[in-house]
Amino acid sequence: MERLSDPAAVRAWVDRTKAAGGRVAFVPTMGYLHDGHIELVRRARELCEHVVVSIFVNPLQFGPSEDLSRYPRDPEGDAARCEGAGVSLLWSPEGRHLYPEGFQTRVQTGALTKGLCGASRPGHFDGVATVVLKLFSVVEPEVACFGEKDWQQLRVIQRMVEDFHLRIRVVPCPTIREGDGLARSSRNSYLSPEERAAALALVRALDACERLFRAGERAPTTLLTTARSVVQAEALARIDYVELVDAMTLTPLTHELTEPALLALAVRFGSTRLIDNRVFR
Ligand code: AMP
Fold this sequence. Notes:
It is built from 10 helices and 9 strands. By secondary structure, it is an alpha/beta fold. The radius of gyration is 19 Å and the shape is globular. A hairpin with a 2-residue loop joins strand 8 (261-269) and strand 9. The mean pLDDT is 97. The strands form 2 sheets. It has a 6-stranded parallel sheet with strand order 1-4-3-2-5-6, sandwiched between helices. 38% of the residues lie in helices and 20% in strands. Bound molecules: adenosine monophosphate. The site of adenosine monophosphate has 17 residues, from helix 2 and strand 5.
């Protein structure tokens, strides 16, 4: 596995790889890699001979009161995991590489980011789209894998690829969970043992709603009330949002449930904000 930092060196590597007939799949991450990330790599390897993983904690997508400085990092552990997963190139750019002096051009997202995490994290998705476009421009992958855990992010990237006519196939990958159902997340490492136990309220709420849906319930208010009450029954949980939206447009479903529908949750446990979702169809 190669390890590079400078975008020019990454470009040269990509050029060499493509000239030799290799196809490149790309997995952008913020590091502190867990099994969810490794599943993206596994999927990427099924699709192309070479997988590039990037690790960059992107300041542009963090709000002033968010966890940029304390975001967990483990560069050597990440490198070992990538090596073990068969990654060809691990790219860890520095801030100055992606945001050099004079940087000023950004991607502006639209209706997809008005609600859900976009409402509680203003500017977040513009920051995500901007950095992903930059990463795409350097790696020029054929395929890019994104996790469904971050459903809104996935939709934003799919839309950006369409809007900018990028020749990249975006491949959604299912959410990987711990044995007890909690979605894997780098932020799970912030949780105290009590908060970790309380965080299962997310899965309980998704399961409760899914049971109702399977039993034929289609009234958004009933589904939402159920999800909210399951979360609220957990003393350590503070709801940021619990929403039922059209899974493609992300517009709220208030009267009628159209499918596929997405039940999306963001809940705080202490100072840690976790998200999870499920698609109903
Ligand atoms: P992050 O490092 O959190 O920015 O995530 C990098 C990529 O991994 C994104 O496409 C995420 O959606 C994806 N990802 C994060 N957690 C999971 C998970 N539990 N299952 C599947 N994909 C995930």
